[in-house]
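My current task is to audit a protein record that another person submitted. My question to you is simply how this chain folds and whether the tokens agree. This is what I was given:
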Amino acid sequence: MCEIIAITIDGEVASGKTSVGRIVAKHLRYRFLDTGLMYRALTWAVVNNDIDPNDSDTLVRLSAENIIAVNFDDNGEGVVYLGDWNSTPYLHNPKVEMHVSSISRVPAVREKMVIQQRILARDNSIVMVGRDIGTVVLPSAKHKIFLTASPEIRALRRHKEPKIDSPPSFDDILRALKERDFQDKSRAVGPVVPAENARIIHTDDLSLDQVVNWILELVKEPT
């Protein structure tokens, strides 16, 4: 029987977790899940149904109603559904971006998501990315990675992403990113910090391929 292996990749916003994790999973033929999409899906449901993002009771009720599900496509990548609707292509919009951090801080919401995420990692080897995967979701994972870079580098990367109508300026992106960093690192439940035994990779001067290769070499190391 093959060993089921979990690789966790945590890090700050725009640190490259998703891009790196997707490629690592493809190389290893593991499943891949960006857990942030699950919180974004709940946020999408909130902002598109005129629900107050600060109404914690309603947020808890929504998360308890099992409206969010994850299926894996033919490439092994997690696709997030709201009910039977594939919400994944619609989760990176400004309204979701504005509220996802505050919604993901609600303890009962995180507890529900963590249960789902642990179940998804139970039966298949997986690369799971997020902000508290190595510390909270899968603390016994075989390999734990934490990606970090300066706020300026991360803002520059975000600024270079494909543009939407009326894209924000670099300064606006940097300001929002620093605010998100503060929220993520100071929240009481699942703060964004490296696990004690995580390998920390500073990616300021590294290319995407260099980070991927570093992780693939790490996975090959005997444990």
Observations:
- The radius of gyration is 17 Å.
- The mean pLDDT is 91.
